[in-house]
Amino acid sequence: METQSAGAPRPRKGRVVMLVDNKVEGDSRVQKAAESAAAAGWDVTLLGLVRSGNGRTWKLGDADVRLLPLKTPLAKRHAERHRSPLRRPLAYPPGPMSAYRQQWAKAWRADVATRRAALRVAPQAVGSPAFRTSEQARLALAGPASKFMQKWIGLRARQTRQAQKAGRSLRGPIDRAFTATWKATKGKRAWRRLEPALWDYELTYGPVIDQLKPDLIHANDFRMLGVGARATVRARAKGRDVKLVWDAHEFLPGVRPWEDNAHWIPGNTAHESEFAPYADAVVTVSDGLGDLLRERHGLKEQPTVVLNAPDRPVENPADDDEVPDLRALCGIGPDVPLVVYSGSPGPQRGLGDMVEALPKLDGVHMAFVVPAPAAGYIQGLLRRAEELGVGDRLHAVPYVPHWQVVRFLSAANVGCIPIHHWPNHEIALITKFFEYSHARLPLVVSDVKTMSEVTRSTGQGEVCTAEDVDDLVRAIKAVLADPERYTAAYDKPGLLDTWTWEAQAEVLDGLYTRLVPGTTPGARA
Predict the structure, then answer these.
(1) Helical H runs in 318-388?
(2) How far apart, in whole angstroms, are the C-alpha atoms of residue 333 and residue 341?
């Protein structure tokens, strides 16, 4: 039998470049995809970004991770670059002029006051009697003039601030008219006017992708779709057969935009619509989202579903993989009822409802496992808990690495997902649903469509009405009263096995192999 010689390179299936528009850390789906693809034999480079400072690199298993410094000059809105005669006709142009003029007016007023005082207290220092007489005449005019000028400049400065604020928020009738005009004249190409900041991502990632010469580009979500599609087109124009996988994490028209303005959704959906046809395959997180994507973009085949499932829990973890104790971080003992929420925070995710429910749950503690416990939103919830007299029973603790999440959460008694009715909330089984399940926690979920249907069918938890605090209290009390009734669902053979990242990684590897068959160092020059 022939054996591979020592030091010989391990056969690789092909080169994959993964793209994501964040700093990678905290994005468990992307991290697991990169690490598992590399373990399956793909030569993986994962490109992310940093919004300030220099980029950096590290290894994620056998995958290379590179963070690129993102420069965003095109993210400046029109009102930040030009005057806004329609919004505020008296505003100064963007730049230092407003601050300069305000300071100049203050200096003039200070000079007038000083000269008046000098005439009273040190007339000899001012000059001759004739000069002092003329100085009094000048000050008689300069005083009112400087006062008027200061008020006039103050008015223009306020208009400048208002114009820039309105220009950044982009919510007014001018902004809606601007959006409608470009949508009507440019269609799918309108994003170039509505969201030109998308070019900042292209100019950051594009040259690096071209240097890496991938066989397959895996573009995560809507911003990276355009970056990946343009890189694919450039490579094919040079004779290289590159495949593009688009991993759609959410249904973009149903997203609550991070920037609530008239341009954001129309601009980004136009960008997505222009470049969706370039994808050789589409991956998404649920069948429901796959149906929406296929209908919206006229996809030739149904998207491949790769669930946001966690790693299979390790039964005998290594000693050096010590998992933090959730209860110790909360300062409570093993017998204290503990309800946990783990994931990104936000009003639409129902954390405020949990806080309002806490006074009605005697003796129960709640833990928010979030990326940044010191963030303003979380601190506001903690202050609200103090106002309600339950501040000692609400705790905010930081994330742990994705491979520790399940064991970390298993210290709780209930996993809570009280999310509100938003289009994307209705169609997905979100990451925390699977994490709670592997932690064998009874669930309390809101009545969003897909998650409530699965929870009822498996019997692993209670469903409550979204945004109904009293019903949330009822559901939490129900699972705390009889937890074994709900955890028995996890004993069903095969249920948790299909909800693991290992099972999802096989699906992703199969898709890659179908798109890039027989790719070894000798097969593709």
Answers:
(1) 326-330, 351-357, 376-387
(2) 18
